[in-house]
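ingest -> validate -> predict -> emit
validate: passed (alphabet ok, no gaps, 401 aa)
predict: started
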Amino acid sequence: MPRYLFHSSEAAYDAATRTYTFTIEKRVPHATTLTIDRFGFTASTAASYPQAVYVRSDALTDLCKVKSLMEVRSANHESQSDVVAVLEEAHGPGRYQLDKGKLRFPIVRFHNRLAIDFRFSDGPAVLHGAYTVPSQPAVTDAEVLALPDMLMMLDWDHTANILPALITAGTDVTSINSRVFSNLGYSLIFSTSAAGLEYSTFGATHALESTVSWHYAIENSSGNNPGEGQVGTLSMMFRTKDVLTGWHWIFNSPLFQITAGSHMVGATFMGYYDADTSNYEVTSLQIAAASDYFLQVRKVGTTFEWLLRDLSNGVEQTETTASNTRTNGQPNQTWGISSAQTGISGMKISHIIEISSLDVDDLLTIKNWMLQKYTGQNIPGVPDPNGKDAAFYAEMTIDSR
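emit:
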């Protein structure tokens, strides 16, 4: 009459299937009955916990001679179940135990199964064994559009604002217009300067990709564009060239004249230009070839506060450049995605938002919206410093004749 103790710390855990597996050294000859003597389970840390937890096991279900347990559903109301026990909450939220005495099952004699598996579920939904940081609610387009003091929002997934109509990847873009109206009451429209500026994929979203040298997209509106004022924030995503060479404007407005690669020290550093002093400036923010980035530049007083995030691994670089930024974003000037001076050949430029707000919550909303666009997934929440993985124990007896 062998007795078996199972503990989660001794199991092989498969995060993909959320299954714990144990290997028994040898089968029990002439086995007749399996008894679950004790079973306790503590759920991984979560915002809420189920009322009861089902213990599921393919191995124990296969061992049973009589499959008597059915899960009742609204459709196909009797479904053969792999549930072998129901644990009720005890001793506080997230802690469960077998609360109705021992469970006995007749088993198939001379069964050769030696791997024993366990999964735990809330109804049909299998629970995580490892602590999982919950995702934040999705940031909707409407939330971004509702932010105050928005000057421009170029959204490469909002194809209603991109020409030609019904655009697909690999097609030349003729223009894209902002999803918000400027403070002058009209939408900024960026027109491309030549063929070869194509609609392209960028992570899970889209972008403008240049396959030709020296060309760009420009918004001149007869020199009647809005003034940016003295403060504001530029947020955008871009992909660098496959081989870094020289420097390239990636965004040009009176207040924000930003380059990938520096006019001063070369292709591997971000740079910018101050039109008040006619000085090219450099940052310590480094870029790599064939890499996707999120960039957020906050203009406060005479400083730029930079955040550059590598979209492949989440590594962020930050810096404050303390002088030589343009004092005021003058009205009636052209804005550009790059310019005729350098073009963006071999690069991709994705979503761009400029906002007069410096509010950290507004800027986080924009950042999360863009990261969500790129990954196609919600942004993870803040990890619980006390978060713990699930754990369980079980005691079972196998009788034989």
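The longest strand covers residues 31-42.
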